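Table S2 (text version). Query chain:
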Amino acid sequence: MRTSIATVSLSGTLTEKLTAAARAGFDGVEIFENDLLASPLTPREIRARCLDLGLGIDLYQPLRDIEAVPAEVFARNLRRARHKFELMGELGADTVLVCSSVDPEAIDDDALATAQLSELADLAQDFGIRVAYEALAWGRHVSTYDHAWRIVEAAGHPALGTCLDSFHILSRGSDPKGIEDIPGEKIFFLQLADAPLPAMDVLQWSRHHRCFPGQGGFDVAGLVRHVLRTGYDGPLSLEVFNDVFRQAEAAPTAVDARRSLLVLQEEVGTARPPAPVVPTGVAFAELVTADAEPLTALLGALGFTRTARHRSKPVDLWQQGEARLLVNTGTAVRRDGTRLAAVGLESPDPAGAAARAEALLAPVLPRRRAPQDVPLDAVAAPDGTELFFCDARPAGWRADFEDVGQPAAVAAPGVRGIDHLALTQPWHHFDEAALFHRGVLGLRAEDSVDVADPYGLQRSRAVSNADGTVRIVLTVQAAPGDDTVHAQHVAFATDDVVAAARRLREAGVPLLPIPANYYDDLAARHEFADGELETYRELGILHDRDEHGTLRHCYTRTVGRVFFELLQRDGGHRGYGARNAPVRLAAQHAVRTPAAHTSQP
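Corresponding structure-token output:
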């Protein structure tokens, strides 16, 4: 199917928006009136620009507050409409969006609305234009799609049809099944948007919090299936009002938008990209650093040993149990120091995973490799982290490394493997990241969680495979520029977090100090065995429970932009300690600003 996007969904000038839409692979655009009014280009020049870019102009919008008004007001509205139709002729647009009126002068009279829309359609037909009538969720008298359709049906005019908008339909809780009663040829246009499910005024919700399909809580795919059953053969078009998208760079937003439609088309069965290849494990996490000594000292204290070195690059493999970390000292390091730069994902079909990524607009990254290096494809996640698709067999990526004679550590209280990775997203890429990991990698996304930070809120969302062997927590910075607190981290699974924490302390590595008030609260909320809570207090171990089991975990201090977590799950605990996150964030702020912190005894 053709794909289209409203220019209001992207940031920048109209020229920048058109360029971004074309480069992302859209077939057409909806020209939003404000974008045209602010453009130095004439309508004919905009038309020519779209032709040069290979874009059709699928819709001009919006024409507001037209119908069900007193006669003298409607006469002015027709004069306004005539001017817009002349302009559309210069643009080369043949469909106009007419929103249901919110005018205080509008009259609650369907017969009047029908008559006036018919007259508008007569005028539009003279210009070769179709009128798509849309029910705004906050329309004064017409606010549901079925009501708008009754008016269109009563008019019976060939140049008058309806526009269906997933936000306006689903935000009101309307049943989209009734869409199937509308003849497909009378659905002149389909606009798609998703949204979270907050409790707020619907107008504010619409104007500021829409998102692309697959990024919110609406069943957009279900609505589209109903529309397709009518025989609708027009474009799938995105109309997304979102404050974040308006401030973000247009080009990546357009790619994110296009990817959302590719995933949506796959879900409704109108497109068949390569099937998702869900990763089965974490092969490695790669840390880039200019000064390896503080990092490797911490890894040694955690029980890791340096087991191998890359045969052609300054990259060392540190391992303990099934946890593997690559320490790279040859890549340019940003001013914020050590960072988590790449993740190796074990895949049953690396080539298939790369093909899936390419089809969903995540191209394989160019890499310099020596002739003898194992071919290893990687794509960039929205935050810039490189994701490698690794063959899990011994002849895979590990063949690039030469042993240095030290076997992987298997100390009793040590690390078994990587439980999860936490990747901090730029503030404007959070929704994109969730869709990327779900659509490109085939991971399952959990609900978003808001966590209180001392200077705002931190938003997080976990994605994982079915058995939990791959878990990634996506977080968005609450305080931009605070790299110490809003860092990436690697969480290591252990069978005995108390013993692992004691081992670190004995090695002289300070764990993140946790305030005494936290343990006083724990004592009020839970019962513990004799001495258990005192041990947690002594070592800085946090505790959480869910319906499945318990979680105990503790944190190292931050090195550059990375810190480590030791984590013990018992009884099938499925969470990540969200209840404890505000305490951890506050403790990290306190460590960074010692004057504000009273040390633990």
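Notes on Table S2: DSSP finds 18 helices and 25 strands in the chain. Residues 71-91 form the longest helix (21 residues).
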